[in-house]
Design a protein that fits this description.
The protein has about 300 residues and is of the alpha/beta class. The protein is built from eight helices and eleven strands. It comes from viral metagenome.
Length: about 300
Protein backbone atom coordinates (compact mmCIF):
# COMPACT_ATOMS: atom_id res chain seq x y z
CA UNK A 1 0.00 0.00 0.00
CA UNK A 2 1.22 3.49 -0.87
CA UNK A 3 0.89 6.34 1.61
CA UNK A 4 0.06 10.00 0.99
CA UNK A 5 0.42 12.63 3.70
CA UNK A 6 -1.90 15.58 3.22
CA UNK A 7 -2.89 18.80 4.96
CA UNK A 8 -5.55 21.27 3.85
CA UNK A 9 -4.52 24.00 6.26
CA UNK A 10 -2.08 26.86 6.54
CA UNK A 11 1.62 27.03 5.85
CA UNK A 12 2.76 27.06 9.48
CA UNK A 13 1.03 23.72 10.04
CA UNK A 14 2.58 22.28 6.86
CA UNK A 15 6.10 23.46 7.78
CA UNK A 16 5.70 21.96 11.26
CA UNK A 17 4.30 18.63 10.02
CA UNK A 18 7.30 18.23 7.69
CA UNK A 19 9.47 17.64 10.77
CA UNK A 20 7.61 14.42 11.56
CA UNK A 21 7.05 13.30 7.97
CA UNK A 22 10.83 13.51 7.50
CA UNK A 23 11.38 11.00 10.34
CA UNK A 24 8.66 8.61 9.11
CA UNK A 25 9.97 8.58 5.53
CA UNK A 26 13.55 8.06 6.68
CA UNK A 27 12.68 5.06 8.87
CA UNK A 28 10.18 3.33 6.56
CA UNK A 29 11.77 2.99 3.14
CA UNK A 30 9.72 -0.11 2.37
CA UNK A 31 6.77 2.18 1.63
CA UNK A 32 6.24 4.53 -1.28
CA UNK A 33 5.34 7.95 0.12
CA UNK A 34 3.50 10.83 -1.50
CA UNK A 35 2.30 14.16 -0.19
CA UNK A 36 -0.34 16.67 -1.11
CA UNK A 37 -0.31 20.10 0.47
CA UNK A 38 -1.83 23.33 -0.75
CA UNK A 39 1.67 24.81 -0.71
CA UNK A 40 5.08 24.31 0.90
CA UNK A 41 6.84 21.86 -1.44
CA UNK A 42 10.23 23.33 -0.51
CA UNK A 43 9.96 21.83 2.99
CA UNK A 44 9.85 18.32 1.47
CA UNK A 45 12.44 18.74 -1.27
CA UNK A 46 15.23 17.05 0.72
CA UNK A 47 13.17 14.11 1.96
CA UNK A 48 14.47 11.46 -0.40
CA UNK A 49 11.66 8.90 -0.58
CA UNK A 50 8.63 11.12 -0.98
CA UNK A 51 7.11 12.93 -3.96
CA UNK A 52 4.12 15.14 -4.68
CA UNK A 53 1.03 13.16 -5.65
CA UNK A 54 0.03 15.64 -8.36
CA UNK A 55 1.98 18.49 -9.97
CA UNK A 56 1.51 22.00 -8.66
CA UNK A 57 1.80 25.27 -10.52
CA UNK A 58 5.04 27.23 -10.36
CA UNK A 59 3.27 30.50 -9.61
CA UNK A 60 -0.05 31.73 -8.31
CA UNK A 61 -2.71 32.64 -10.84
CA UNK A 62 -3.44 36.33 -10.64
CA UNK A 63 -2.15 38.63 -7.94
CA UNK A 64 -1.86 37.21 -4.44
CA UNK A 65 -3.36 39.82 -2.12
CA UNK A 66 -1.88 39.94 1.37
CA UNK A 67 -4.08 37.80 3.60
CA UNK A 68 -5.99 36.21 0.72
CA UNK A 69 -6.00 32.38 0.87
CA UNK A 70 -3.37 31.31 -1.68
CA UNK A 71 -5.23 28.13 -2.65
CA UNK A 72 -7.83 30.34 -4.35
CA UNK A 73 -5.14 31.22 -6.88
CA UNK A 74 -4.22 27.61 -7.72
CA UNK A 75 -5.71 24.79 -9.73
CA UNK A 76 -7.93 23.16 -7.12
CA UNK A 77 -8.61 19.74 -8.71
CA UNK A 78 -6.83 17.81 -5.96
CA UNK A 79 -8.23 20.02 -3.22
CA UNK A 80 -11.74 19.47 -4.54
CA UNK A 81 -11.08 15.73 -4.68
CA UNK A 82 -10.07 15.66 -1.01
CA UNK A 83 -12.97 17.86 0.06
CA UNK A 84 -15.44 15.67 -1.87
CA UNK A 85 -14.19 12.71 0.15
CA UNK A 86 -14.70 14.71 3.37
CA UNK A 87 -11.01 14.61 4.24
CA UNK A 88 -10.67 17.89 6.18
CA UNK A 89 -10.41 16.42 9.67
CA UNK A 90 -10.48 12.62 9.50
CA UNK A 91 -7.38 10.72 10.60
CA UNK A 92 -6.74 8.52 7.55
CA UNK A 93 -8.67 7.00 4.67
CA UNK A 94 -8.02 4.50 1.86
CA UNK A 95 -8.85 5.93 -1.56
CA UNK A 96 -8.43 4.57 -5.08
CA UNK A 97 -6.41 7.03 -7.18
CA UNK A 98 -5.72 6.14 -10.82
CA UNK A 99 -6.08 2.46 -10.00
CA UNK A 100 -3.81 2.65 -6.94
CA UNK A 101 -4.93 2.00 -3.40
CA UNK A 102 -3.46 4.89 -1.38
CA UNK A 103 -3.77 5.50 2.33
CA UNK A 104 -4.23 9.25 2.85
CA UNK A 105 -2.95 10.35 6.27
CA UNK A 106 -4.06 13.74 7.58
CA UNK A 107 -1.22 15.73 9.20
CA UNK A 108 -3.33 18.67 10.38
CA UNK A 109 -2.65 19.15 14.10
CA UNK A 110 -6.37 18.93 14.91
CA UNK A 111 -7.08 15.86 12.77
CA UNK A 112 -8.84 12.85 14.26
CA UNK A 113 -5.68 10.74 14.73
CA UNK A 114 -3.33 13.49 15.91
CA UNK A 115 -5.11 16.14 17.99
CA UNK A 116 -2.02 17.87 19.33
CA UNK A 117 -1.64 21.47 20.47
CA UNK A 118 -0.72 23.71 17.56
CA UNK A 119 3.07 24.06 17.15
CA UNK A 120 3.76 22.18 20.41
CA UNK A 121 6.66 19.89 19.50
CA UNK A 122 6.59 17.74 22.64
CA UNK A 123 2.84 17.20 22.39
CA UNK A 124 3.20 16.50 18.66
CA UNK A 125 5.82 13.78 19.21
CA UNK A 126 3.44 11.89 21.48
CA UNK A 127 0.61 12.45 18.99
CA UNK A 128 2.64 10.97 16.13
CA UNK A 129 3.51 7.94 18.28
CA UNK A 130 -0.22 7.47 18.81
CA UNK A 131 -0.85 7.97 15.09
CA UNK A 132 1.47 5.04 14.36
CA UNK A 133 -0.54 2.84 16.74
CA UNK A 134 -3.87 3.89 15.19
CA UNK A 135 -2.62 3.19 11.66
CA UNK A 136 -1.61 -0.31 12.73
CA UNK A 137 -4.94 -0.88 14.48
CA UNK A 138 -7.32 0.51 11.85
CA UNK A 139 -5.40 0.19 8.57
CA UNK A 140 -2.92 -2.65 9.17
CA UNK A 141 -0.01 -0.36 8.32
CA UNK A 142 3.15 -0.85 10.36
CA UNK A 143 5.38 2.23 10.55
CA UNK A 144 8.41 3.01 12.68
CA UNK A 145 8.75 6.37 14.41
CA UNK A 146 11.70 7.18 16.63
CA UNK A 147 13.68 10.35 17.32
CA UNK A 148 17.29 9.74 18.35
CA UNK A 149 18.47 13.34 18.23
CA UNK A 150 16.06 16.30 18.28
CA UNK A 151 17.91 18.12 15.49
CA UNK A 152 16.99 15.22 13.17
CA UNK A 153 13.57 16.80 12.99
CA UNK A 154 14.83 19.83 11.05
CA UNK A 155 17.73 18.31 9.08
CA UNK A 156 15.69 18.20 5.86
CA UNK A 157 15.03 21.94 5.69
CA UNK A 158 17.94 23.31 3.72
CA UNK A 159 18.08 26.66 1.97
CA UNK A 160 21.44 26.11 0.22
CA UNK A 161 19.87 26.80 -3.17
CA UNK A 162 18.59 30.18 -2.05
CA UNK A 163 20.08 33.00 -4.13
CA UNK A 164 19.58 35.18 -1.08
CA UNK A 165 21.95 32.99 0.91
CA UNK A 166 24.60 33.27 -1.81
CA UNK A 167 24.22 37.03 -2.26
CA UNK A 168 25.95 39.13 0.36
CA UNK A 169 23.20 41.67 0.93
CA UNK A 170 24.29 44.60 3.03
CA UNK A 171 21.78 45.16 5.83
CA UNK A 172 22.30 48.18 8.04
CA UNK A 173 23.32 47.23 11.58
CA UNK A 174 20.28 48.64 13.35
CA UNK A 175 17.69 47.36 10.84
CA UNK A 176 14.47 45.80 12.10
CA UNK A 177 12.69 43.09 10.12
CA UNK A 178 8.93 42.98 10.67
CA UNK A 179 6.53 40.31 9.44
CA UNK A 180 3.40 42.12 8.35
CA UNK A 181 1.65 39.14 6.75
CA UNK A 182 -2.03 39.20 7.59
CA UNK A 183 -2.77 36.16 9.82
CA UNK A 184 -5.38 33.80 8.40
CA UNK A 185 -6.19 31.78 11.48
CA UNK A 186 -6.89 34.50 14.06
CA UNK A 187 -8.24 38.01 14.36
CA UNK A 188 -5.34 40.44 14.43
CA UNK A 189 -5.13 44.22 14.76
CA UNK A 190 -3.06 45.23 11.73
CA UNK A 191 -3.83 48.89 12.39
CA UNK A 192 -1.92 48.68 15.66
CA UNK A 193 0.99 46.93 13.93
CA UNK A 194 1.09 49.61 11.24
CA UNK A 195 1.34 52.29 13.91
CA UNK A 196 4.28 50.43 15.47
CA UNK A 197 5.97 50.27 12.07
CA UNK A 198 5.48 53.98 11.46
CA UNK A 199 6.83 54.91 14.89
CA UNK A 200 9.89 52.67 14.55
CA UNK A 201 10.62 54.00 11.07
CA UNK A 202 11.18 57.48 12.49
CA UNK A 203 14.55 56.39 13.85
CA UNK A 204 15.23 52.89 12.41
CA UNK A 205 15.58 51.19 9.06
CA UNK A 206 12.69 48.78 8.57
CA UNK A 207 12.27 45.81 6.22
CA UNK A 208 8.72 44.44 5.82
CA UNK A 209 7.67 41.01 4.58
CA UNK A 210 4.89 42.51 2.42
CA UNK A 211 4.45 45.70 0.43
CA UNK A 212 1.83 48.12 1.76
CA UNK A 213 0.91 51.40 0.09
CA UNK A 214 0.57 52.94 3.55
CA UNK A 215 4.36 53.13 3.70
CA UNK A 216 4.98 54.52 0.21
CA UNK A 217 7.60 57.28 0.14
CA UNK A 218 8.93 56.36 3.57
CA UNK A 219 12.68 56.32 2.96
CA UNK A 220 13.32 54.18 6.04
CA UNK A 221 11.10 51.29 4.92
CA UNK A 222 11.93 48.58 2.38
CA UNK A 223 9.81 45.63 1.28
CA UNK A 224 10.84 42.02 0.75
CA UNK A 225 8.71 41.72 -2.39
CA UNK A 226 9.10 45.13 -3.99
CA UNK A 227 12.76 45.78 -3.09
CA UNK A 228 14.25 42.28 -2.81
CA UNK A 229 12.11 40.57 -5.46
CA UNK A 230 10.95 37.84 -3.06
CA UNK A 231 7.32 37.08 -3.92
CA UNK A 232 4.96 34.38 -2.60
CA UNK A 233 5.16 31.13 -4.56
CA UNK A 234 3.27 27.85 -4.08
CA UNK A 235 6.43 26.00 -3.02
CA UNK A 236 7.06 28.65 -0.30
CA UNK A 237 10.71 29.16 -1.18
CA UNK A 238 9.94 32.80 -0.41
CA UNK A 239 9.66 31.94 3.30
CA UNK A 240 13.17 30.47 3.35
CA UNK A 241 14.50 33.42 1.35
CA UNK A 242 12.86 35.87 3.73
CA UNK A 243 14.77 34.41 6.66
CA UNK A 244 18.05 34.83 4.78
CA UNK A 245 17.36 38.57 4.85
CA UNK A 246 15.68 38.74 8.26
CA UNK A 247 18.49 36.95 10.08
CA UNK A 248 20.91 39.71 9.05
CA UNK A 249 18.82 42.32 10.86
CA UNK A 250 19.49 43.48 14.40
CA UNK A 251 15.90 42.78 15.50
CA UNK A 252 13.08 40.64 14.06
CA UNK A 253 9.42 41.10 14.95
CA UNK A 254 7.24 38.05 14.33
CA UNK A 255 3.47 37.73 14.68
CA UNK A 256 1.26 35.05 16.30
CA UNK A 257 0.92 33.31 12.93
CA UNK A 258 2.72 30.30 11.49
CA UNK A 259 3.90 32.04 8.32
CA UNK A 260 6.44 33.96 10.42
CA UNK A 261 7.57 30.90 12.40
CA UNK A 262 9.44 29.06 9.63
CA UNK A 263 12.82 29.67 11.27
CA UNK A 264 13.58 26.45 13.16
CA UNK A 265 16.28 25.52 10.63
CA UNK A 266 18.09 28.80 11.51
CA UNK A 267 18.50 28.12 15.24
CA UNK A 268 22.29 27.89 14.95
CA UNK A 269 22.55 31.52 13.82
CA UNK A 270 19.77 33.26 15.77
CA UNK A 271 21.17 35.55 18.45
CA UNK A 272 19.83 36.33 21.90
CA UNK A 273 17.50 39.35 21.98
CA UNK A 274 17.06 39.21 18.21
CA UNK A 275 13.54 37.77 17.75
CA UNK A 276 10.48 39.29 19.41
CA UNK A 277 6.83 38.29 19.12
CA UNK A 278 4.16 40.98 19.24
CA UNK A 279 2.18 40.94 22.51
CA UNK A 280 1.78 37.18 22.88
CA UNK A 281 3.36 35.49 25.89
CA UNK A 282 1.62 32.18 25.17
CA UNK A 283 3.23 31.70 21.77
CA UNK A 284 6.56 33.08 22.98
CA UNK A 285 6.63 30.37 25.64
CA UNK A 286 5.51 27.70 23.17
CA UNK A 287 8.16 28.61 20.60
CA UNK A 288 10.82 28.67 23.31
CA UNK A 289 9.87 25.16 24.45
CA UNK A 290 10.32 23.97 20.86
CA UNK A 291 13.63 25.77 20.46
CA UNK A 292 15.03 24.54 23.77
CA UNK A 293 14.05 20.96 22.93
CA UNK A 294 15.69 21.06 19.50
CA UNK A 295 18.88 22.65 20.83
CA UNK A 296 19.03 20.49 23.94
CA UNK A 297 19.57 23.51 26.17
CA UNK A 298 17.57 26.40 27.60
CA UNK A 299 18.03 29.47 25.42
CA UNK A 300 14.55 31.04 25.29
CA UNK A 301 15.38 32.94 22.11
CA UNK A 302 11.89 34.43 21.65
CA UNK A 303 11.08 37.57 23.64
CA UNK A 304 7.76 39.41 23.87
CA UNK A 305 7.57 42.69 21.91
CA UNK A 306 10.50 45.10 21.65
Amino acid sequence: MDICFYNLNHIGDIYFSSLFINIICKLNKQYKFYYYFINGDIFFKNITNIQRLYPIEDSYLGTLINGSPPEKHLNNNVLEFLLTNKMESIGAKNIQVNGKNILFINTWCASEYLKYRDYDILNAIEAYKNLILLLQLHHNVSLSFEINKPLELIEHINEENSIYKKNNYIIENDSIFIFNFKPRSLIFDLHSLNNIILNLSKSKKIILSSYDTLFDNNINIKFIDKDYNIYPTPNCMNLLNIWEIAIKCDKILILPTGSSWTFLHKLNVIKQNQIFILNNTHYANLLNVNINFLLGETKNLIKVTM
